[in-house]
Amino acid sequence: MKFSEIVQKLGDSATNNSLPENDVELTRVAAIDEATANTLSYIEGGKFASQVAKTSASALILPQNEALQAQAQERDIAWISTSEPRLLFAKVIALFYQPYRPMPGIHPTAVIHPTAQIGKDVYIGAHVVIEADVQIGDRVCIHPNVVVYPQVQIGSRTTLHANCTISERALIGCDCVIHSGAVIGAEGFGFVPISTGWYKMEQSGITVLEDGVEVGCNSTIDRPSVGETRIGKQTKIDNLVQIGHGCQVGENCAIAAQVGFAGGVTVGNRVIFAGQVGVANQAKVGNGAIAAARAGILSDVEPGAIVSGTPAISHKLHIKAAVVYSRLPEMYQAIKKLQKRLGEK
Fold first, then answer.
1. Is-contact 190 230, C-beta < 8 A?
2. Which of 54, 42, 44, 46 is nearest to 6 (CA)?
3. Rg of the chain over CA atoms, in angstroms?
4. Residue 318 catalytic?
5. 3-96 CATH
6. Using CA atoms, how far apart are residues 188 and 176, in angstroms rounded to an integer?
7. pLDDT tens digits, residue range 18-71?
8. In whole angstroms, what is the distance from residue 231 CA to residue 4 CA?
9. What pTM does this model have?
10. Catalytic residue among 143, 179, 245, 318
């Protein structure tokens, strides 16, 4: 589409822009270092500022930086400036690309229990199994090989990708996305030790995903023995994440790949977990906290704290400790020399 069309579609987000005399036609979007002619790209900040002078892109989304804007204008590159270039770039991608979504309809190989309630304009793919008393909202998209156990409720416009499993009585909100291989509401890991081994504690609770939750491929969210496991609105969960039974995760959290929560973890709103973070049983993480990659959270984390390391401590303190750790061999040698001198005396 023409650059002017993009500006028009973006509305108030693109009020500050520069249009060359020839309204450039754009055919795709790309990263700044991969951009070619007729491509739109973006620069988020000063780290990639040098790319403006050498990019082949025909249009750019720039930060509110007059020097970069002037540089783009000198090269006859169309530009839009904004305080949030990455966000605007995401909106532009959506103008060029929409995820695959089949037309509404039910594949003849789908197995649907007669008591299931199916909303309007729903797509149900090949070999989907929907058990008794399931309720499915309007415009839900269920891709092939999905299994939905009895008494599940799925809100409108939710998408279930191929080969995911929704276990019994799970409640899935509107506008959720469950990716391939994910399992929502499976049995929590509940066993009571006895003299002969283990006694299985039945997991009679439920799992609840509120509106707008996304769950990545091969992630698992378990149901508890009693009560519920709950994921708050708009929380985003990456691939290969394990959320144990009875966890309570707040709204607008971001949980990266290979994070693991033990049972009963409580997480506030707007919390960020980087990759491979582990959280111990019953730990509480406050609103707005951030856990750096591979942090091991063994106890409660205060709201707004940034933690790293195992056991997790203040990120600033962990950086200082890491510097000392790297000097341990040198310090050890110094101590040995000091001990030798003291021994000689």
1. no
2. 42
3. 26
4. no
5. 3.40.1390.10
6. 22
7. 766 668 899 999 999 899 999 999 998 777 788 898 999 999 999 988 888 888
8. 41
9. 0.91
10. 245
- Ramachandran assignment for 320, one of left (phi > 0), alpha (psi -120 to 50 degrees), beta (any other): alpha
Domain boundaries of the chain, sorted by first residue: 3-96, 105-318
C-beta separation of 125 from 147 below 8 A? no
- DSSP 8-state symbol, 188: P
Sheet order of strands, 165-166 included: 111-112, 129-130, 147-148, 165-166, 183-187, 220-223, 242-243, 260-261, 278-279, 296-297
Q: Which residues of 43-58 are buried (b: 16+ CB within 10 A; e: fewer)?
A: beeeebeebbeebebb
How many residues are present in the chain? 345
User: For residues 195 and 197, what is the distance between their CA atoms, to the nearest angstrom?
Assistant: 6
Looking at the structure, give the CATH architecture of the domain made up of residues 105-318: 3 Solenoid (2.160)
What is the mean pLDDT, run by run of 10 residues, along the chain of 345 residues?
90 71 87 93 84 92 89 90 92 93 97 98 98 98 98 98 98 98 97 96 97 98 98 98 98 98 98 98 98 97 96 92 88 88 75
